[in-house]
Design a protein that fits this description.
Blueprint lengths: L2 E7 L3 H5 L2 H12 L3 E7 L6 H9 L5 E5 L6 H11 L4 E5 L10 H8 L5 E5 L6 E4 L3 H17 L11 E5 H7 L10 H11 L4 E5 L1 E3 L8 H20 L15
Helix pairs in contact: 6-9
């Protein structure tokens, strides 16, 4: 299959200097005959965009997009999805908290009819090599309880940045995405379920990035408000219409 890998990036000079783009490229070049690597710079204030453009030179499989200004991780992933050409599309964080080889745990389920296959850090079989600080773990559990009640019951880790979507699922749900920042994962999974796409949650190996710049309090407040937005969108009928087959890209 033709696989697209979407990698959002914001102020990621450290990750680039750790050769993470090269690690992505080497891995997928080795294991996939047909792939594209799509980096999306989210209006970085450092040299992320220029470094990625330099990295892409001479590599026909690598594409670098930019949002121009900071729009949020959700917008960056959406931008990459809408430009990507793959039969299946994986989005993965540039910090490689989930190693690229974990894709081999997810891929078998695409052949079993699942249009959305997501990595999970919390279900049985997951391996956490470096844990988040305790306060982040507790806040994550509290957030998940809210997600279970308001949006996608039965999905235990909506926020792991390692998910595969089929092209037909992307074409049907991504144009309806309204959330640009941290709550976008919840919205995509809500829309997938609403459109009757099967979701499979798969245990993966994960390593916390100790250089993470995420503001926990700010992000938690934002994610909570965005989950409420998903619920309100649903109740107000904003998601009611489904995209017709005629509008789906081939």
């Amino acid at each position: 299959m033709f696989l697209s890998i979407i990698v959002p990036a914001y102020n990621e000079e450290k990750s680039i200097k750790r050769k993470n783009p090269q690690k992505f490229y080497d891995f997928f070049k080795k294991h996939f005959k047909h792939f594209e690597l799509v980096f999306v710079d989210d209006g970085s204030k450092d040299q992320t965009y220029n470094l990625l453009k330099e990295f892409a030179k001479g590599k026909k499989e690598v594409c670098v997009l930019t949002n121009g200004i900071n729009r949020g991780k959700g917008y960056a992933v959406k931008h990459g999805f809408l430009k990507a050409k793959g039969d299946y599309m994986l989005f993965s964080d540039i910090d490689l908290a989930t190693p690229s080889e974990e894709i081999f745990k997810l891929m078998p389920y695409t052949k079993k009819g699942y249009d959305v296959v997501i990595g999970s850090r919390v279900i049985k079989g997951a391996e956490i090599k470096v844990y988040q600080p305790l306060y982040r773990q507790l806040m994550g559990k509290a957030f998940n309880r809210i997600v279970q009640i308001l949006a996608v019951p039965g999905v235990w880790d909506t926020q792991c940045g390692f998910k595969i979507f089929s092209r037909r699922a992307v074409n049907a749900i991504v144009p309806w995405q309204t959330i640009d920042r941290w709550g976008f994962d919840v919205e995509l999974l809500f829309l997938a379920r609403k459109n009757k796409y099967q979701i499979k949650e798969v245990p993966i190996t994960w390593v916390n990035d100790e250089d993470s710049r995420l503001s926990t309090i700010k992000a938690s407040y934002q994610m909570l408000s965005e989950v409420l937005k998903v619920r309100l969108n649903h109740l107000s009928g904003k998601y009611k219409r489904k995209i017709s087959n005629e509008n789906i890209k081939r």
